[in-house]
Specification:
Number of helices: 10
Distance between the termini: 11 Å
Number of strands: 7
CATH topology: Rossmann fold
Number of domains: 1
Strand order of the largest sheet: 3-2-1-4-5-6-7
CATH superfamily: NAD(P)-binding Rossmann-like Domain
Helix content: 40-55%
Strand content: 5-15%
Structural class: alpha/beta
CATH architecture: 3-Layer(aba) Sandwich
Length: 273
């Protein structure tokens, strides 16, 4: 049974890669808890979409507002450092504070979402080198750069946090997963832990989180190949992040890689619906 999440007053979050999927679920759940949520992605109504999958930053921002928060959508390519700096300046000027950064932007699934299922499961010497670049330039590096740019703003507020969306394959390699994917997620885990060590004195937490199989738009393209029993919804993952962000014991978790399923049990949240 779900617990009632605390409704927070004047808290501000920045969720990257939030036009669809897990990012949209996290942003919407934060909105339901009363947050102001800045959402970024490359896909926008005017800018156009980077995928055949539905979703835009404007639509997510509206969903945040409809849920009870305040959504602000910004088109941003997180591979462009200046675009990230521009968003951070807007957050500082318009919101005045930042309590939560969710590193979710991830270009590593682009080729898979475009239908390259056989390529995703191929051996590393058979995969295009572009797959590695997408996961590191459009994934790990974006998390590092966004964290570095936002850190001065986060450090001003005690109880702030950086949550980096990772996967369990970073902790223990799954032979069914690709080499580039495994290494990139391990890098995200180490990034979260290393940042935690330097942010601790300011009372800012840094954790990585491991969702399970999440029923995103991209995943559902391949539903016939997957066992979806016990799978998580994007909104369910989001409710867990919303609870984690206001956990009074958050600093006891800093530096760790945390399973969404374990956190859901901790907070009494159903992540399947």
């Amino acid at each position: 049974m779900d617990i009632s999440l605390p409704f927070v007053d004047e808290r501000t979050a920045f969720v990257t890669g939030a036009s669809r999927g897990v990012g949209r679920g996290i942003a919407t759940a934060l909105g339901a808890a009363g947050w102001t949520v800045w959402v970024s992605a490359r896909s926008g109504l005017a800018a156009g979409s980077t995928s055949h999958l539905p979703g835009s930053v404007e639509e997510t921002a509206r969903a945040v507002t409809a849920a009870g928060g305040r959504g602000i959508g910004v088109v941003c390519d997180h591979r462009d450092d200046e675009q990230i700096r521009a968003v951070a300046r807007r957050i500082e000027a318009e919101s005045g504070a930042l309590h939560l950064l969710v590193n979710n932007a991830w270009a590593g699934y682009e080729r898979l979402n475009a239908g390259e299922y056989a390529e995703w499961t191929a051996r590393f010497w058979e995969q295009p080198l572009e797959l590695w670049d997408a996961m590191f330039d459009g994934g790990v590096r974006t998390h590092y750069v966004t964290s570095a740019i936002c850190a001065p703003l986060l450090r001003r507020t005690a109880g702030s946090a950086i949550v980096t969306v990772s996967m369990e394959v970073g902790a223990r390699h799954d032979p069914a997963q690709g080499v580039a994917y495994s290494v990139a997620k391990a890098a995200d885990d180490r990034l979260a832990a290393a940042m935690a060590a330097q942010l601790a004195a300011d009372g800012t937490a840094s954790v990585a989180v491991y969702p399970g199989l999440v029923r995103t738009e991209g995943v559902m393209q391949f539903a016939e190949h997957l066992d979806l029993s016990g799978s998580q919804s994007p909104e369910g993952v989001g409710r867990v992040i919303a609870a984690l962000a206001v956990d009074p014991r958050l600093m006891s978790l800093t530096g760790q890689a945390l399973h969404i399923a374990d956190l859901a049990e901790r907070y009494g949240i159903d992540v399947t619906g």
